[in-house]
Design brief:
By secondary structure, the chain is α+β, with helices and mostly antiparallel strands. Helix content is 23%, strand content 29%. It binds uridine-diphosphate-2(N-acetylglucosaminyl) butyric acid.
Length: 336
């Protein structure tokens, strides 16, 4: 079934709880319905909205918003050491993590409690605690409205990078992701190298899948605001990648500045949260918006904020970090 809404209120469809509207919004359950949906509603201006956990609306959307609602999860292949799992785009990401943990399938436990739907996971290659969705994705299925075709892209063609993929670049606003297939391991392979994860997992009794999941959930809950209570979109900025030489120079001035390895040759990743904290903006408030007091990477709607207010705060944060460190931090959230 396709469910269509005119002049749709988006406030319950974005985690910042911003009150904007879309001219048209259509929810679909089956991929077969997509050709009809695009024929009926026109293809002039459209975009996909999953759970709205990484989108900031700064104005009403004058086009069609398409929301995948299929929630099927199935095992599509069993190998001696691994299992292939296919999930439709409308599945809640954390439900899929729980589903895999319950079946003793390793690979996505570090990505527990990341808000959002499965269809959004490959787009920004969601990541946490040293693991990225791209590490476990084997292929992505999509509908291409301009040709009316379905397409399956193998992971090696998805150009996964740090919070990046082909879906944010070449295929941006060109495809509707309908399902994602993952390859998970039956062999225990705990990845506990990041921050407090090892200590927290040990305190729960050791590195079982369930304990790792619980540790990640409790660390996230202690730092990140609950979107049901406080509007936010997780990390608002990406961690900036700089040349090693530039990082060394910064380190001489700020010896306690955290540096992380990154895939790019000769480069390191800095912690945007640390930079924002150091320029004194952690816990900063301005009208209806603020910087979260426990994690400076997160901008929050303190109640009744507009998207423009959040955007203005983001610009102010970027300006101060640039002034303090000479570094440009990019937004991770999609701004519409
Ligand atoms: N830090 C501060 N002050 C702050 C925040 C952080 O000094 O207010 C310091 C921390 O002490 C730490 C460093 O900065 O030394 C890094 O902070 P943290 O460990 O909290 O992780 P992050 O790099 O800020 C990234 C992801 C998160 C993910 C965590 C854990 C990005 C943009 N963010 O944050 O992802 O949960 O690592 O793996 O890469 C998200 O994308 O929405 C998200 C929450």
């Amino acid at each position: 079934m396709i469910r269509c809404y005119e002049n749709a209120d988006l406030s319950s469809r974005n985690s910042f709880h911003i009150r904007q509207r879309a001219k048209r919004l259509a929810e679909f359950d089956n991929t077969d319905q997509l050709p009809e949906l695009f024929e009926r509603w026109g293809m002039v201006r459209w975009r996909v909205l999953g759970g709205g956990n990484n989108t900031l609306f700064t104005h009403d959307y004058d086009g069609l918003i398409v929301t995948p609602c299929g929630t099927g999860v199935e095992v599509t292949g069993e190998q001696p050491y691994s299992v292939t799992v296919r999930a439709e785009a409308g599945v809640e990401w954390d439900d899929l993590v729980q589903w895999c943990v319950d079946r003793e399938l390793w690979g996505m436990e570090n990505l527990s409690l990341i808000p959002g739907k499965v269809g959004a996971a490959p787009v920004q290659n969601i990541g946490a605690y040293g693991v990225e969705a791209g590490d476990v994705i084997s292929s992505v299925e999509m509908y291409v409205p301009s040709s009316g075709n379905m397409l399956t892209l193998a992971a090696e063609h998805c150009a996964f990078g740090y919070r990046d993929s082909i879906f944010k670049n070449m295929l941006k606003d060109e495809v509707v992701i309908t399902a994602v297939t993952f390859e998970l391991s039956r062999i225990p392979s705990p990845k506990l190298g990041y921050g407090d994860l090892l200590r927290c997992t040990q305190s729960l009794g050791g590195p079982s899948l369930q304990n790792i999941r619980e540790a990640v959930c409790s660390i996230r809950r202690s730092k990140l605001p609950d979107t049901a209570v406080t509007g936010n979109a997780g990390s608002f900025f990406k961690n900036p990648v700089v040349k090693e030489s530039a990082a060394e120079e910064l380190r001489t001035k700020w010896p306690d500045m955290p540096l992380y390895p990154c895939q790019e040759e000769g480069c390191v990743k800095l912690a945007a949260g640390w930079l924002i904290d150091k320029v004194g903006m952690k816990g900063y408030r301005s009208g209806n918006v603020g910087v979260h007091e426990k994690q400076a990477l997160v901008l929050v709607n303190l109640g009744g904020a507009t998207g423009v207010e959040v955007l203005e705060l983001a610009r102010e944060v970027q300006r101060r970090v640039k002034e303090g460190f000479g570094i440009e931090i990019e937004t991770e959230v999609n701004i519409l």
